[in-house]
Amino acid sequence: MNSSRITGLIPLFLYPEEGYHDLLEEIDPEDFKDDEMEQLGTFLSFLKRSDLKVLQELYIESFDMNPSTTLDLGWHLYGENYNRGKFLVKVRNLMREKGIKESTELPDHLTHIIMVISRMESAEQNEFGKNYIIPALKKIAKGFENTDNPYKHLIKFINKFFQNQFLEVIPDGSIQ
Predict the structure, then answer these.
(1) pLDDT tens-place string over residues 105-143
(2) Terminal-residue alpha carbon distance, the chain
(3) Residue 53 belongs to a domain with what CATH number?
């Protein structure tokens, strides 16, 4: 996985602040496959037409106020049980091991997960992606399923990106 390609997208998953619109200039469509870029392009078009206040309100509504679409992956994997705590500790330890500073977000927030996975070796990335990232992103995407929320395109994009990275498609079209 090209780590700069994915880490460059982290700001799209953070609360929109001044300069958020400048992210448009940072993203090179050539870095992504057509099926990934279709969803990302839809989100970026929305981003281009929206003022910062609208983006901030929608971000809070989408990711902070709605448990079915929170960006805390452990929540989607384990809910509020003991195993989520173990997952938080696991990710926090990975962050320390990889030299990643914590932010105000919990360790299982998608932005931290992206940083962690970008610093892993390929085999470790594949295992972590298949076991944790893809199952959680599928649940987040499902939370957006029957909405017209523009953030659903960003989630569909990152979900497709990681599926393309970590899932092997066999000739009959099914996923291993």
Answers:
(1) 999 999 999 999 999 998 899 999 999 999 999 999 999
(2) 19
(3) 1.10.3480
For residue 10, the surrounding DSSP H or E stretch is: none
| Of 58, 149, 72, residue with least CA distance to 105 | 72
User: Which tokens go with 42?
Assistant: 């839809």
Provide the whole-model pTM. 0.89
Asked, for residue 172, whether it belongs to a domain, the answer is no
Residue 31 in contact with residue 41, Cβ under 8 Å? Answer: no
Per the structure, the complete domain to which residue 97 belongs is given by 3-165
98 lies in some domain: yes
Residue 63 structure tokens: 């990711």
> Buried b / exposed e across 24-59, counting CB within 10 Å, b at 16+?
eeebeeeebeeebbebbbbbbebbeebeeeebeebb
Q: Which two tokens stand for residue 143?
A: 């939370």
Written as six digits, the tokens of 29 are: 């469509």
Separation of alpha carbons 43 and 149, rounded Å: 10
Assigned domain for 174 exists: no
Task: Indicate the Cα dihedral angle 124, 130, 132, 134, nearest 10°.
Answer: 130
